[in-house]
Task: structure prediction
Amino acid sequence: MEARDFRNLEKLTYRPGSGLNIILGDNAQGKTNILESIYLLSVGTSFRTGSDKNLLRYDKETYALRGLYSCNDRNLEAELTYHLKSGKMFKINSKKTTFGNPLRLRVVIFSPDDLFLIKGSPHKRRQFLDFILTQIKSEYNYNLVNYSKILKKRNLLLKREQYNTRSFAIIEEVFIENAARIILARINLINNLDEYAASIYQEITNRKGNLKIRYALSFPLESGKINHDALKEALKKQIGEKKEQEIKRRSSLVGPHRDDLNVYQDGRIARYFASQGQQRNIVVALKLAELHTLKKISGFNPVFLLDEVLSELDREKRHLLLDYLQEAGFQSFLTSVNLDEIDHKSAAVVTVKNGHLQ
Amino acid sequence: MRLARPLENLIDNLLKLPTIGPKTAQRLALYILKMPAAEARQLAQAIIDAREKVFPCSRCGYLTDIDPCFICRDETRDTSILCVAEEASDIIAMERTGYRGRYYVLNKNFNLMDDNNLEDLNLDSFINQLASGEVKEVVLALNPDIEGEVISRYLAGLADGHGVKATRLAHGLPVGGDIEFADEITLRRALEGRKEI
Ligand SMILES: [Zn+2]
Result:
């Protein structure tokens, strides 16, 4: 990959190995910038900032990223350029495209921020699911955008007390339709994640721990069946029952924007009962489950980006994870300040200093 | 650098057009300056003529210089089927598929997801046509975005109220894509796959 005028990377060329890659460096030398540029080539936005301006090197007006990768034995080239005035342009094999292109690179990111996945807000857990789904199906992102639009409109009508109009009834129908689509996709995803997460968690805990993940609806689903129609019916019923409350609070109280992801550790809900160490194990299991699920559904390997998470894990888990990454059949990138306690027998190690590889 | 006032004025006006950026506006303006005077006048006159003489058909909303438009006057068309589109440009795409029914263009100039409501749509002519009893099927060819979904449902409800079947272009359209940009083959497939809503 190449990066030009991206943060502190003036002109960087990096040829990583196909397995575990370790990027070493002191703080603020550019380790995470390298991960960030790989992430951008896949997702189009940063995991650290919402503004592209922040990604420009000091005094520069444009940055450019280029990455060569292969997907199902097909060699591909992704290019992302940003200009202060004209914005972003994304190309795959020299053809202008979008980040919905099925040939784009897929990534899984694991950063210290993810350690709050368990105890953090439900919003964070929904984001975790939505990010995976967007990478699996570009249609999902479209559904999500539609849902947020229709939710906004519904809330607007509630605020303006226009809930007895023909418009409101139609908006509500479409709202329910889209809500059901999102929920169904999320439940399907969780079914896949659950299977992987459970077995990985067993491995991490030497067969002592038990992990289960479930989708927590913001409304009751009476029929045991989960399909589009059953969801629509349940949503409709609950919205009917909550109508007065919604009018009073002037916002939509039922739907995927209020749902959550429940993680159970040994049968108990992890966000209340898991210790900090257990939470970390769970997050590791979830992240690896994300990776396997992406591979299973999309058919090709994502790239795994681990930003400064090693130091957050205890010694035993660290070894376990490193062994796992070195034996795994996918490419991973890991940043660290030093190689202490890092068993890197088959890893490709580089050091970054002042934005340059050494 | 300072440009001559009239040139600057021309560039500023071209810049108001969609898809025209500063560079293109400048290029077009300089091109116009090099045109023979008669041709430049012709271009200006063409803009004035089109603007003054073309208007939406009172019956279907298609852009026309006679009222009703040539499509509405065409007696060989199947009057039992009415295709609803968002913009006149969608009709051009539909015509290429070999569709031989009539049209109704919404020509909507508001944002439903923001400020306006369905009640703000001017649908008098549409409702009159439903009431006439001639129309047996309404084909909703709106963009497959959320706004199109909402309006489609609303129109389907109106059609249903008049005992008219409503179908919607279902498959083959790129999700999130504008109908205007769908190529003919996908549009034709979408039309065959229309399903009752
Ligand atoms: Zn007409």
